[in-house]
Structures are given as C-alpha cells and as structure tokens.
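Handout for the seminar on molecular recognition.
Each group receives one record of this type.
Step one: identify the two inputs.
Step two: read the structure output and locate the region that could contact FE2/S2 (inorganic) cluster.
Step three: write two sentences on what you found, then compare them with the reference statements printed after the record.
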Amino acid sequence: MVKYEGKVVIALQVNGEAHEVAVRPSDLLLDVLREQLGLTAAKPGCLNGDCGACTIMLDGWPVKSCLMLAVEAEGHVVLTVEGLNGTAPIQKAFVDADAFQCGYCTSGFLMVCHALKTQNPLMPKENIIEEWLQSNLCRCTGYQEIRRAVRLMYEST
Ligand code: FES
Ligand code: FES
C-alpha cells in the first residue's frame, strides 16, 4: 500500500481485472466501486448493513460493501454484478421467476444468491436458503419469486 497525498494506493482485483486505486483511509468500498471504478450495480441503501443493496462478493463470499473500507479490500478478489456478464444462472432465474419489480435490491440479491451457489454447489436445505436470503431486504416482491429464482438457479445447473 503506497501513501500518496493523504490517500493510499490499493491494489485489488475487480471482476477479473487488476486495479490500483488511490483512496482515502475512510472511503467505503461501495463508494470506490461506484465512483472510481464506475461499477454502479451495488447500490447505496441503508448504509448501515441492514438492506443488502450494496452486496458484492469478496473472495467468494457475500459482503456488504457499505460496511467495508476500501483499504480492507487490498489484495482481495471482488466480484460485482457487472462481472457476472449476464451469464450467471441466477440472472436468468431472476428473469424467469419475475423476481424483481423496482429492481433497487436486485443487484444485492443476485450477488448473495450467486455466492450461495458458489459456497453450496448442490441445492441446500430450505432453512439454509432462508438464512442466506435474510441478509437482504426487498420492498416490492414479497420474496416468493426470489425463493423461486433460487430454486430455478439450482435446477438449471
Ligand atoms: S446499503 Fe449496505 S446494507 Fe444497506
Ligand atoms: S424489487 Fe423493489 S426493492 Fe426489491
């Protein structure tokens, strides 16, 4: 980590590409992704860890990027919805299950569901799926369609 005019330069991998970005020690990972790297899929919602709209994947696990400083991501592997390239099974499953309405929560749900599949390649028990989905909030769908999308994701692969 190199110090530079009150900022530090961090190196991290985002969506398969190596990046070096100059950040303030207090910058949130969410803000650096959106404002410096132009990756706006992760959304600012509550900014206190409750809603999950800002969820990204870090080293294969879902992380709320509003709760993480960018400097903490140095040397780690970040994946955002942009890195799914429209080809992840959960993306088709969300469309097929009509699992979104306004869409504000969708990026976060896609990442938590994609992480669920990454960590549990075979369909987990219902209670495990419920536990993972509890990290994110949706104001529109009522969750049934999101649960259906998760099942479709597993059934399609
Ligand atoms: S914006 Fe991060 S959890 Fe709500
Ligand atoms: S689709 Fe609107 S908040 Fe989830």
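Reference statements: The pocket of FE2/S2 (inorganic) cluster (ligand 1) is lined by residues 44-47, 49-54, 64, 66 (CB under 6 Å). Strands lie at 2-4, 7-14, 17-23, 55-58, 61-64, 77-79.
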